[in-house]
Design brief:
Layout lengths: L30 E5 L5 H22 L8 H33 L2 E5 L7
Antiparallel strand pairs: 1-2
Helix pairs in contact: 1-2
Length: 117
């Protein structure tokens, strides 16, 4: 008598499960989910910094020249001064848009999906 194992039906080498041997599956649970379009924060904040830089450019190159300061040093100063308010203004705009998206959110029901494929 030989003690050979039966040929396996699966590529992993384990015997294939028969449908009767599977554990009982749980019934699918439905969940209520909120679906909304939320804005990304970084682009709005970077846009605010860019607006601050453009405002600093305008101030530095349209103001009368000062013999003790170069235009680049004036630009650097005003960029530092105006970039933070621009960043905060961009953050404020994105927060307002985010609040609006929360109010416009729709409630839907979702079914779980089995990803064992």
């Amino acid at each position: 008598m030989s003690s050979e194992t039966p040929p396996s039906d699966s590529p992993s080498g384990h015997p294939a499960e028969h449908p009767a041997e599977r554990p009982a599956e749980r019934p699918a649970e439905r969940r209520e989910v909120s679906v909304r379009r939320a804005p990304r924060f970084a682009p709005f904040m970077l846009l605010g910094v860019a607006v601050g830089f453009i405002a600093a450019l305008i101030i530095a190159y349209t103001s009368p020249p000062d013999p003790t300061l170069t235009r680049e040093s004036v630009l650097g100063f005003f960029f530092v001064v105006l970039a933070l308010p621009g960043l905060l203004l961009g953050a404020l705009v994105v927060l307002v848009l985010d609040r609006r998206s929360v109010r416009r959110a729709r409630r839907l029901s979702a079914d779980p999906v089995d990803d064992d494929a």
